[in-house]
Amino acid sequence: MAVFTCDDVNKNLHFKRCIITNYKRGNMEIEEKVIKVIMEQLDVTREQCVPEASFINDLGADSLDLMELIMEMEENFDVEISDEELQNLRTIQDVIDYIRIREIK
Amino acid sequence: MQRQVVITGFGAVTPLGNTVRETWEALCAGKSGIGEITKFDTRDFETKIAGEIKNFDPLSFVNKKELRHLDDFIIYALASAEMAVSDAALSINDTNAERVGVYIGSAIGGLGTLEKEKEQLLRCGPGKISPFTIPSVLANLGAGHVSIKLRAKGPVNCSVTACASGTCAIGDASRAIAGGYADVMIAGGVDAAVTPLCVAGFNAMRAISVHNAEPEKASRPFDRHRDGFVISEGCGLVVLEDLSTARQRGARIYAEIIGYGLTSDAFHFASPPPGHEGAARSMKAALAEAGIDPVEVDYINAHGTSTQMNDRYETEAIKAVFREHSKALAVSSTKSMTGHLLGAAGAVEAIIAAKAICEGLIPPTINLDHPDPACDLDYVPHRARKQEVGVAMSNTFGFGGVNAVLILKKLKG
Predict the structure, then answer these.
(1) Has B340 been annotated as catalytic?
(2) At residue A1, does pLDDT exceed 50?
(3) Less crowded by CB within 10 Å, the N or C end of chain B?
């Protein structure tokens, strides 16, 4: 039967907090990295890159820009995005979520 | 031609300058635009020199995204078009857009992009090719992008006739206006082919100079020691207008285009026939369309590539057409300074011919230190000459046996 000391519990809590912080920091890093790629590829400002911004409607991208953007994301995050998956990536948040899930895996 | 066609605007980027004014001033000062190739490592190349565009700021004309997606040839065309339209003080709007067309020729299109993407294909596989590859390589995308940027909705086309591309574009555009298919045309030629494949390809043909030690002396048209042309890059565009449209809006008129001749050698894909009868027929065809006597021509801006064959045969063709008058004619090859701008050559040289008419100044043939006895015309050696030019002819001949000639005239009154 395992016996937990207060110390163990505190350590455990600290460990969990670290995971959460790292996870959040990871998220922030992903978000910033995604936005950096988007700013570079679509020649848009940081202010335009709100999470709900649509590549086509808000950031002036055409279908070829999107293809290129996705190739850049694949390169930067070491993922492969199929054409079917691409259909669902309409906003900056879509891309951040997509990459976050795959990074955790 | 049914309607009179005039030039009301110029735009150019050349190895001599990034505007028509800079280019013209360098030409009249007898400066060479040729230097060592900086765009790629020429270690294993026989030819290490070219006429590159220098100190050009593409971001003055396109945004960062366009800069990444467009081949240099398209950017040079966009820059020249912006300058030409501004020079002509032309406004393109809903009332005239459908009557404004764009003809921009190019010999090789986006060869540089093709080379880079082929390397990428071999290195990283087909999934890593830029989606902008094909639209950057297609030769008509210079004209395409210019028409988009200017919102010009009239006829759009791209002549791909090697070194005559720019001349054909201006000739065909003049006819589009003369025939009533458009009122205004942005026309000319562009190429950006200072690339490894282009240099190696012309080297393999023994067509380009290997005079690497003194780049500025490499292009030596009509000189006994000439050893081939020098590849250059750049663009020349003119705004052409129907005379009455131009007059109505009070446009400044540089010159009138009065004749265009286009013939085929039907002989060999790269070599002109002895005596170059195809070139002679092209000059005659342009004179016939202009309805002028050969003695009325004051100045010929020669094709004058600095290859052994061209310069000799072009001289023979000029003598065959102009007979006695060939001795009185001023003939200069500005390629001695610009190098050979390939598809842009004819357009830049048509601009030079028009400037000669406007300024009463004929730019020289530089580097003509040892005249070839077989080339015995007045080539305006070394220094520009002050001389009234009422009528000027511009010759360009291209691979495939195409000979294209334009005749420009000072507009009176």
Answers:
(1) yes
(2) no
(3) C
Name beta bridge partners: B365. B381
Of the candidates A42, A43, A68, the beta carbon closest to that of B130 is on A68
Q: Where are the beta strands (DSSP E) in B132-267?
A: 156-157, 184-191, 234-242, 255-264
Contact status, residue B273 vs residue B265, Cβ threshold 8 Å: yes
- State the Cα–Cα distance between residues B156 and B152, nearest whole angstrom: 9
**How far apart (Å, rounded) are the C-alpha atoms in residues B277 and B183?**
35
pLDDT at B181 over 90: yes
Contact A43 B64 (CB under 8 A): yes
Does A43 sit within 8 Å of B131, measured CB to CB? no
Question: Do A67 and B131 make contact, defined as CB atoms within 8 angstroms?
Answer: yes
Q: Model pTM greater than 0.90? A: yes
* Best mutation target, B59, B63, B65, to test chain A (most A CBs within 10 A): B65
B335 is written with which tokens?
A: 């390629």
B68 to chain A: nearest residue by CA? Answer: A41
Decide: B357 and B392 in contact? Cβ < 8 Å.
yes
Residue B180 burial class via C-beta count within 10 angstroms: exposed 0-12, middle 13-18, buried 19 and up: exposed
Q: Is the ipTM of this complex over 0.85?
A: no
Please report the pLDDT score of residue B274 as a whole number.
85
Indicate the burial class of A4 (C-beta count within 10 angstroms; 0-12, 13-18, 19 or more): exposed
Contact B330, B388 (CB under 8 A): no
